[in-house]
Design goal:
- The structure is a single chain.
- By secondary structure, this protein is α+β, with helices and mostly antiparallel strands.
- It has two domains: 82 residues, 2-Layer Sandwich (Phosphorylase Kinase, domain 1); 204 residues, Aminoglycoside 3'-phosphotransferase, Chain: A, domain 2 (Alpha-Beta Complex), CATH 3.90.1200.
- The chain has 13 helices and eight strands.
- The strands form two sheets. Strands 1, 2, 3, 4, 5 and 6 form a six-stranded antiparallel β-sheet that branches. The protein has a two-stranded antiparallel sheet with strand order 7-8.
- A hairpin with a 2-residue loop joins strand 5 and strand 6.
- The radius of gyration is 21 Å and the shape is globular.
- The N and C termini lie far apart (57 Å).
Length: 299
């Protein structure tokens, strides 16, 4: 790895530390770097690099190699070099999401992810196929899958009624992960372009299933009054969509994760429905919300 970095970047790393199979960290002149696998299309990377040049006050820096490209082939994979910009272990909260929202309107970018209805429908169709082919031996999956497909179908119908095509888009992230640190949130390799609701929903879902008092942060977002009525509906729609379950299910079906990994979410079904109802009541104070009859009637 040292030779790769010296040859491609003219850097002599100190304290080289390998992290799993896809990442290493090191220092040069007391500055921290990460050399990481980029597991997205290279078309995305060109766009990400161009956008990242205007994000430098907020985000870590992508360093091009001596061939003037942001991707470096190594061991059959594409790697990127990231230079840390500021702290990497600060915990991110909803106030950081509010403060560091960056508007970015681009209608034809490969990073655009605003077509939620079609993206979600394709995801459900793919998982249903996987279940039909592979899922018969997974007892936990068999007993839970139809419920989460029902939630997804509700979210898809909800989104299709909203028609948010003219809404402003912002720099967003593919996923908000736990632990939620500045190293990951300000990593430009994870950015996409989507509506504001995406990151808020991902953050709230992540915090909820970590059993944190996330409703207080939802209240704080409402008090800040930075969302318009349509955005409150989009946020609720995205909270309804069970991305957390589908991500875990993907690991079960394709990467041999234990079925019991799904229980983290299944065991909190009733609590999450209560959370959704509380959020719905909060959002009703700011917006005319579309109704989810089955959810409201269970209160």
């Amino acid at each position: 790895m040292k030779n790769v970095l010296l040859y491609n970047y003219n850097l002599e790393p100190e304290n080289l530390n390998t992290i799993g199979d896809h990442e290493c960290s090191f220092y040069v002149n007391y500055e921290k770097y990460y050399f990481v696998v980029f597991n997205r299309p290279l078309e995305d990377l060109e766009e990400i690099y161009a956008i990242s040049q205007s994000l430098k006050p907020y985000y870590h820096h992508i360093i091009k190699n001596r061939f003037d490209t942001p991707a470096t082939p190594y061991m059959g994979k594409n790697y990127c070099l990231i230079k840390m910009n500021g702290p990497e272990n600060n915990e991110i909260d909803v106030l950081d999401l509010i403060k560091d929202t960056v508007p970015f309107t681009q209608n034809k970018s490969p990073l655009l992810r605003t077509d939620w209805g079609n993206l979600w429908s394709s995801k459900v169709d793919y998982l249903e196929y996987q279940i039909s082919e592979l899922g018969t031996t997974h007892k936990v999956v068999r007993h839970s899958f139809s419920y989460y497909v029902g939630l997804a179908e509700n979210a898809i119908e909800y989104f299709n009624l909203l028609k948010p095509d003219d809404l402003t888009t912002v720099i967003s992230h593919r996923r908000i992960k736990t632990p939620f640190r500045s190293k990951d949130y300000y990593n430009p390799l994870d950015i996409i372009i989507d509506y504001k609701a995406r990151d808020y929903a991902s953050y709230f879902k992540m915090k909820f299933f970590e059993k944190k008092d996330v409703l207080e942060e939802v209240r704080l977002l409402v008090q800040k009054d930075i969302l318009n009525p349509l955005e409150y509906n989009l946020l609720f729609c995205r909270l309804l969509y069970p991305s957390y379950y589908f991500d875990a299910l993907h690991q079960v079906l394709e990467h041999d994760a234990d079925d019991d990994s799904l229980l983290k979410y299944i065991d909190l079904v009733n609590d999450y429905e209560d959370f959704l109802r509380n959020v719905y009541d909060l959002f009703k104070t700011k917006s005319s919300m579309l109704k989810i009859e089955w959810l409201i009637s269970k209160s």
